[in-house]
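Field reference: sequence -> structure
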Amino acid sequence: MALVRLSEGEYILAVGEGELYVRSGGLEVFGSSFERLYIPPTKAVPCRAISDSEVEIIRGGIMTLDSEPIPDSWVDAIETIMSSGARKVMLFGGVDAGKTGFATYLLNSFIEEYGVGYVIDADVGQSDIGLPTSVGLGRADRPVPTLLEVPVLKEYCIGLTSPRGLFHRVVEAVSILSPLAGGEPLVLNTTGWVTGSGLYHLKRSKYSVFKPDVSVVFGDVDLYRYVSLLGESILVDRPRSILPRSHDTRKMYRDWRFQRYFSLGMERCTVSKDNVYVLGIPYEKVEGSMDRVLVPGQLGAFLNRDGSVSSYAIVLESDGDLTVGTPFPPSDEKVFEATALKLDIESFSEMGWIDGVIDLLSIE
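Structure field:
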């Protein structure tokens, strides 16, 4: 542990996995003050000393910053959104553009103004609300330093860490989850895929079902021009303090999320293959070799009647009836839906996509 003294107005970047405790003074993160901060692995959170402060670094590290990490355009955009009375905001931007940080800042502003805020996290590869491979809805009534701390209300398993080949499932999830906010303030966070079909098909379809009051575009003038044709839009800068995350770093975050979930326990359950689906297709209707679409290590989910996730599970044995392991076994008979993602049964780390399931999606 280390004690760091910060002067009023000084900026730091807290790097995860880390934990900070404010012994005196105060730290502001995305518009709200916190006494204790937890930073997830591979993440970094910008902090400002509200006053002369003493901060205990329990674990992790910090980087000092020479200037304000939050762009002025973010502050201006949030002031515009709040003063306009906009309740639904959709975010557009490439990889490492700052969307998740802005979503956190805007959520905290909504909570301060209205007492509550909702977020749909549709970034299936790096989802904070729900496990990776899912689109989740969260609700918070107190400020949060990261979206990981937003309680999950409902999530839908999409089936991959990418929306490729599964646009319809992502859009359907957004269309189902949006009304559940009941008219309260709602932010839609999205993937960094803003070219080709990722923009013109996926994002356009999300926009159509979400119907935002305003969209926020991050640092891309051409993208802003396109989104502005759809409706009211605001262009903001990319933050200077973002630490670019590589493909491997992003996988590390997913591995940590899976490990965190499945390390809670692995109770064995038997599932009749009559109740098994593979990305929405009944198992008995799947064409091709069955041993290529159900394999040990395959991630899946037990589903509620409305198709939302009851609990996640990993296939342990696929001969005869299916045997899966889950921390939260269902209390009644439920449909089990298998995804296209394989995990290591021991470490719960991601091993890759399952070719037999990918073939069902016609993805190259």
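Note: The CA atoms of residues 132 and 319 lie 27 Å apart.
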